[in-house]
Design goal:
The protein is an alpha+beta fold. It is built from 23 helices and 12 strands. The strands form 4 sheets. It has a 5-stranded antiparallel sheet. Strands 8-10-9 form a 3-stranded antiparallel sheet, covered by helices on one side. This is Mechanosensitive ion channel family protein.
């Protein structure tokens, strides 16, 4: 038996040994296969590796931009394009760094979970944990290195952008302050160059015209047709929408100020835009159809620009000064003054336009620079002379107010400004700073006209948005007829129209002024992009686009919660016959939840960090512990009042000893104005925790009572009929519920009634009750119905021969007896004053 046991143990041990050897060989084979598979599997780039590659590309692009800046140091247009590319590169570098932040946070959190490596004397950790920690640490170091490179690259790009801005500023200053020697020889050279230029340009123009007529006739007519169609569509649509504001009605002798402003602004803006569309589309189609040659295209563009400038100034002069229509004039000028100033402005616009056109011709023909200098000199001198001559005029309206009468001189300050500017142009041009003189002269005309038009537009918006002003306009009358709007809605719509006019004036005018003062379209695009995507206020970045998106999302979620609130109440809970109190609680809870959820989504979409709100909440919680309980309680109560609205501004409320009209509800306190015009400030927590009576919670309907007492001789039914008859004659008294009279009691000396009726507005109660009391008194006198006075019956009993003390004592006892004795059924009240006795 023992031998058998030994044999069995030996066989079991041999079997286990063979199985262990098999498992070890299998594990070795599996590890070898995994190693081979890992060697054959291609490595996947980590986020830091991808960011490093993108940074290398960005560095190459930065080097290319730096080379381009060196090559185009004297070309402002090229520098504008390079600056736009540099700005895009800066945003791309910042995006690379931002995209690494989530991975960095993951690594940091994972390393925190793994913990530090074991110290000396501690048990060793698993090899796989050590490998993971080392890999994460290496990746974190790589991310830090990439982030540092990104920051350095961003600094370099910012430095390049600043260099470009400084180079453009220096180019602008050098162009304006470049000095040219003015002499007789220069004028002779310019005259010869002008004759040569005219000959060459006439030949080029005739050859181009012959070529177009022979080979490009159909594209020419197609371009003209398309451009005219575009302008006519804009003009017809404008006349359909703003027809009443594009032409003056001659039948109106004394137009309102708002009417004059509106016609001046919209007629100038719409008609100028229509011509601009015609000119721009004409040039676009002519160039797209290959009708224009490279040497003719700039000249045609300059010609269109000159036409647009002269037309714009002409429309502006006609809109503001109205030379031949003094009743439509916006400034106090005489007829002669309006015409003279208008002609001066138009002449300066023509001079500037021709200078620009001839300068473009000179560039296209390759004429010498001296011709451009002399041409700009002549233009600056002419404009300076016009300004000086205009300063000596008498354009101001006569004191009599007659526009046909001779006018008065300019105000002293205005005349001095005109003379100083005109003399400054002449001196600057003759001193050789022709570029500066030409720039100032151009800005005087174009920028001045744009600013004046913007100012007129802002005045129009201000006049239209003024309370009860929009209702007198044609558009308001159309809205009233078409949509049956009331005065309040029309007035609110007028405010929106005024704000829209503000927006149109600023959106159109400000970019034009910036373009005139040396900005490029790319600059404006960059400014607009930064304005809508990132506005920095100190260390805070605000995105207007994100804020608008957050507002829209907040409104959407809020409306969705309101719809869900109504749906649950009217469908689910109403069909389930849920108690009204529970339904109201559920509705209120869903409303609060919807507002909170909408606020969180809106704030998150706006790009506002919610951690800052958490800091505010923690600060408030700490402040509560230091004595801010009442303030926070009032604050929360105010939010509840504003959201739940148990009363609103204008309601008649009663709270404790305060009764009056709610004037203002803030987050801390509510202002109640009593009927004696005393303002009472009530903390919101008292209104939430205390009893508040609201006479106008749902509506302003309220019941009024007038107590009436008549003598016992009066017929009660007749009294009731008279009261109801008088009440029916008051138009402010509601017919439903119907007025009624209550016979209240048999008084000690009168029959007591109470007239009860309802008013649509409790605010009329004092007036109605006062008028009714006077009518009741007048009617009762006419009907012979007496209104008794308070009285007492005093009965004195005398003996045949009373003694003096008894005579003195008995009245007192009798008076006390009469006072305490109730009136018997057969007794009749006697109309008399207290203290007078009826002796018996």
């Amino acid at each position: 038996m023992r031998l058998r046991t030994i044999l069995l143990r030996t066989i079991l041990l041999m079997t286990l040994a063979l199985a262990g050897a098999h498992f070890e060989s299998a594990a070795a084979l599996a590890q070898e296969s995994q190693t081979q598979a890992a060697a054959e599997t291609p490595l996947v780039d980590t986020p830091s590796d991808q960011a490093a590659k993108e940074l290398e590309k960005a560095k190459v692009q930065l080097g290319s931009l730096q080379d381009s800046v060196k090559q185009n140091a004297d070309n402002d247009d090229a520098l504008v394009g390079i600056a736009a590319k540099a700005d895009e590169l800066s945003r791309a570098v910042i995006t690379i760094s931002v995209n690494l932040r989530p991975r960095f946070d993951q690594i940091k959190n994972r390393l925190g979970e793994i913990g530090d490596p074991p110290k000396d004397g501690q048990p060793p950790e698993a090899e796989i944990v050590t490998q993971e920690r080392n890999a994460l640490a290496a990746e974190r170091a790589q991310i830090n290195a990439v982030t540092g490179d990104a920051e350095n690259l961003s600094i370099a790009v910012t430095k390049l952008v600043n260099e470009i801005i400084e180079m453009r500023r220096r180019l602008f200053a050098d162009t304006l302050l470049r000095r040219t020697e003015i002499s007789v020889s220069v004028l002779d050279d310019a005259a010869g160059a002008f004759v040569h230029e005219v000959s060459e340009f006439s030949q080029a123009l005739s050859s181009w015209a012959a070529f177009v007529w022979k080979f490009k006739r159909f594209p020419l007519f197609a371009a003209i047709f398309l451009s005219l169609a575009s302008a006519l569509i804009l003009l017809s649509g404008s006349y359909r929408l703003f027809g009443a504001y594009l032409r003056r009605d001659e039948a109106v002798e004394n137009p309102s100020y708002i009417g004059r402003l509106s016609i001046a602004f919209w007629s100038t803006l719409i008609r100028t835009l229509a011509l601009a569309v015609l000119l721009v589309t004409s040039f676009f189609f002519l160039n797209s159809f290959n009708v224009l040659r490279p040497d003719i295209a700039p000249v045609i563009g300059a010609l269109f620009g000159t036409i647009g400038l002269v037309y714009f100034v002409g429309r502006f002069v006609n809109a503001i000064f109205a030379p031949y229509e003094p009743h439509w004039r916006l400034v106090k000028l005489s007829n002669l003054g309006a015409r003279s100033i208008g002609y001066c402005l138009l002449a300066m616009a023509v001079v500037n336009g021709l200078d620009y056109l001839f300068g473009t011709v000179s560039e296209a023909m390759g004429s010498p620079l001296v011709l451009t200098v002399v041409r700009s000199l002549i233009a600056a001198l002419i404009i300076g002379i016009i300004l000086i001559a205009a300063s000596f005029g008498k354009p101001m309206l006569a004191r009599s107010g007659d526009p046909d009468a001779p006018g008065r001189h300019w105000p002293r300050g205005m005349a001095i400004i005109l003379r100083v500017v005109g003399a400054g142009l002449i001196v600057t041009a003759l001193a050789g700073y022709v570029g500066l003189a030409r720039f100032v002269a151009t800005q005087l005309i174009i920028t001045g006209a744009v600013v004046a038009t913007m100012y007129v537009g802002l005045l129009s918006g201000k006049a239209i948005s003024r309370q009860e002003s929009f209702g007198d306009t044609f558009f308001a009358r159309f809205l009233t007829r078409r949509f049956n709007l009331g005065p309040v809605a029309i007035d609110q719509f007028g405010l929106l129209v005024g704000l829209a006019i503000y927006a149109v004036a600023l959106v159109v005018g400000v970019p034009l002024i910036l373009l005139l003062w040396g900005f490029h379209v790319q600059d404006l695009q960059l400014i607009a992009y930064r304005l809508f995507t990132e506005v920095k206020l100190g260390g805070i970045s605000i995105s207007l686009l994100g804020i608008c998106t957050g507002i829209l999302l907040f409104a959407g979620v809020y409306l969705l919660s309101r719809w869900l609130q109504r749906w649950l109440d009217s469908n689910v809970m109403a069909r389930s016959h849920v108690d009204l109190g529970v339904r109201n609680s559920v509705k209120t809870g869903i409303g609060y939840l919807g507002v909170g959820l909408a606020a969180i989504i809106g704030v998150s979409s706006a790009g506002i960090d919610l951690s800052s709100l958490a800091l505010v909440a923690s600060a408030l919680s700490v402040g509560i512990g230091f004595g801010l309980q009442n303030i926070v309680s009032n604050f929360v109560s105010g939010l509840i009042l504003l959201v739940e609205r148990p009363f609103k501004v204008g309601d008649h409320v009663v709270s404790g000893t305060a009764e009056g009209i709610v004037k203002r509800i803030s987050v801390r306190a509510t202002e109640i104005e009593t009927f004696r015009k005393q303002s009472i400030i009530v903390p919101n927590s008292e209104l939430i925790n205390g009893l508040v009576g609201n006479w106008t919670h749902r509506n302003k309907i309220g019941r009024s009572e007038i107590p009436v007492s008549v003598s016992y001789d009066a017929d009660p039914q007749k009294v009731m009929d008279i009261l109801l008859e008088l009440t029916a004659k008051i138009p402010l008294v509601m017919r439903n519920p119907e007025p009624h009279v209550e016979f209240l009691r048999f008084g000690p000396y009168s029959l007591d009634f109470e007239l009860r009726f309802f008013l649509a507005d409790m605010g009329d109660g004092m007036t109605v009750r006062n008028n009714l009391r006077m009518e009741i008194l007048r009617r009762f006198k006419a009907e012979g119905i007496e209104i008794p006075l308070p009285q007492s019956d005093l009965t004195i009993h005398r003996d045949a021969a009373p003694s003096l003390p008894a005579a003195r004592k008995e009245p007192a006892e009798s008076e006390e007896t009469a006072k305490d004795k109730p009136m018997e059924e057969g007794d009749r009240p006697v109309r008399q004053l207290r203290g007078r006795a009826a002796e018996s």
